[in-house]
């Protein structure tokens, strides 16, 4: 009985066609870890989507407003639009070639929720629809004009290499097949940007920091950075930064704000 039980408990590899023993396939430990990471990421992604659906359902609930609130919101929108047109006429932007850097980091600051449709459209094009999110932009005539249009609702400047690297390493998330993922795997970066010669995180940082030939694809691959609320909340003043407010061009001073929000 004992010997029969021992024989039954043994693992006997199956016979192949030629009568030889067939070995079980060997799976590397790194592959098993990668499978587990992918499974955990899929679970987190499902939970994120469920939370997003719940949040959208809550936001779409009907809220009754008084007529005075509609009138105030309409006047604020029209005032913002008129001020925007005045800025475009009066303010003269320097040529993009004369700027000290080709790389701009723009941050959406707290402000009015009810925006004029034209201003909201420009913010959507700049991918700054949510408060305290930041994006990398290339300094071109079109970009500078768009930033001037939405100046009361954003602040921007020229980031240094240290902050570019820390932003991407700490808060960087990418898009692949319309799904966000953390930048923890060079394989996913290579799959998304390998055709442009960007195969790892260091290549991505270099392309953004130097505003390389594939900057447009690299910046669109990165999701807008979700920044934390600073200890001293932004004053939410629509005045330019140089006049004591929080909005507009900060130049190199943007690095101090990035360090607080990163």
Strand-helix topology:
Blueprint: H1 2-9, H2 29-59, H3 67-90, E1 103-108, H4 117-125, E2 133-138, H5 141-149, E3 154-157, H6 161-171, E4 173-176, E5 179-182, H7 186-193, H8 201-209, H9 215-221, E6 225-226, E7 248-251, H10 254-261
Parallel strand pairs: 3-7
Antiparallel strand pairs: 1-2, 1-3, 2-6, 4-5
Helix pairs in contact: 6-8
Properties at a glance:
7 strands; 47% helix; 262 residues; single chain; 10 helices; Ribosomal Protein L30, Chain: A; five-stranded mixed β-sheet; alpha+beta
Helical content stands at 40-55%
- Strand content range: 5-15%
From the N-terminal CA to the C-terminal CA, the straight-line distance is 69 Å
Strand order of the largest sheet: 6-2-1-3-7
What is the average per-residue confidence, as pLDDT, rounded to a whole number? 82
Overall shape: it is globular
Unreliable runs, pLDDT <50, ≥5 residues? none
Q: Strand count, sense and closure of the main sheet?
A: 5 strands, mixed
Work out the helix count: 10
CATH architecture of the domain at 67-172 and 223-261: 2-Layer Sandwich
CATH superfamily of the domain at 67-172 and 223-261: Ribosomal protein L30/L7
Run of helices and strands: HHHEHEHEHEEHHHEEH
- Using DSSP, what is the number of strands? 7
CATH class of the domain at 67-172 and 223-261: Alpha Beta
Specify the structural class.
alpha+beta
Radius of gyration, in Å, reads: 26 Å
CATH topology category name of the domain at 67-172 and 223-261? Ribosomal Protein L30, Chain: A
GO molecular function: RNA binding; structural constituent of ribosome
Keywords: Ribonucleoprotein, Ribosomal protein
Protein name: Ribosomal protein L30 ferredoxin-like fold domain-containing protein
Domain Large ribosomal subunit protein uL30 N-terminal eukaryotes: 27-91
């Amino acid at each position: 009985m004992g010997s029969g039980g021992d024989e039954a408990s043994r693992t006997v590899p199956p016979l192949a066609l030629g009568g030889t023993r067939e070995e079980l396939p060997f799976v590397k430990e790194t592959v098993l870890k990668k499978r587990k990471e992918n499974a955990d990421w899929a679970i987190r992604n499902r939970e994120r989507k469920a939370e997003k659906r719940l949040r959208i359902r809550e936001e779409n609930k009907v809220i009754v407003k008084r007529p005075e609130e509609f009138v105030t919101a309409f006047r604020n929108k029209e005032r913002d639009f008129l001020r925007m047109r005045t800025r475009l006429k009066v303010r003269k932007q320097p040529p993009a070639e004369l700027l000290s850097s080709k790389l701009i980091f723009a941050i959406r600051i707290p402000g009015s929720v009810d925006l004029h449709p034209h201003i909201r459209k420009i913010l959507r094009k700049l991918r700054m629809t949510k408060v305290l999110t930041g994006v990398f932009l290339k300094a071109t005539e079109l970009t500078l004009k768009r930033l001037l249009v939405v100046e009361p609702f954003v602040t921007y400047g020229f980031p240094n290499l240290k902050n570019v690297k820390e932003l991407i390493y700490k808060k960087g998330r990418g898009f692949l097949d319309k799904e966000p993922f953390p930048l923890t795997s060079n394989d996913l970066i290579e799959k998304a940007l390998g055709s442009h010669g960007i195969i790892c995180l260091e290549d991505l940082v270099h392309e953004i920091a130097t505003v390389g030939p594939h900057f447009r694809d690299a910046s669109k691959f990165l999701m807008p950075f979700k920044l934390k609320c600073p200890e001293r909340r932004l004053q939410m003043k629509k005045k330019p930064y140089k006049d004591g407010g929080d909005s507009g061009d900060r130049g190199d001073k943007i690095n101090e704000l990035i360090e607080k929000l990163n």
